[in-house]
Amino acid sequence: SRGLAVSEVIIEGPSEDANRVRVHGILRSGEKFDYALPPLCTHGDIADAKSISLDFISNTTDLIGRKMEDGFIVRALIPARHEGGKFHGGTYIMDKVDPKSRQIETKYLEESLVRDRLVSTATQEVQANSKSQAPQS
């Protein structure tokens, strides 16, 4: 059961060729999440966004859906906020499912820690290829 969780997916941008996907909502725990994926015209490389204003590429993340070394997958971003007189940086939510028990384990990490623990893209491709070529029983 998702409880009272809700989310909205929006495609936004100045043109058909320069747009992005923004996802925001509230988790079952009551925490708000909000992030945007890199604009389509950048092919995931924010540095290529020459024709787009910096405001449009702010609050974007290339970490959603990425796999970490410990098997967790990055699912959402809780944005930076001020709370109790303190600044809290953006926090990523990630989870993994135990294939036997089907239990979901969730953890929260700041961006710098997530980037340090990502499985390289090349490693992910090798793992995916080996799974797809494995003999079926």
Structure report:
The chain is of the alpha+beta class. Helices cover 17% and strands 33% of the residues. A hairpin with a 6-residue loop joins strand 7 (91-97) and strand 8 (104-110). The longest helix has 13 residues, at 121-133. The chain is globular.
Instruction: Report the biggest beta sheet as strand number plus sense, adding barrel if it closes.
Output: 3 strands, antiparallel
Count of beta strands: 8
Widest sheet: strand order? Answer: 1-2-3
Q: Radius of gyration, Cα only, in angstroms?
A: 17 Å
Taking all residues together, what is the mean pLDDT? 76
Features:
3 helices; 17% helix; three-stranded antiparallel sheet
Task: Please sum up the structure shown.
The protein contains 3 helices and 8 strands.
Describe the SSE topology.
Blueprint: E1 6-12, E2 20-26, E3 32-36, H1 54-57, E4 73-78, E5 81-83, E6 86-88, E7 91-97, E8 104-110, H2 111-116, H3 121-133
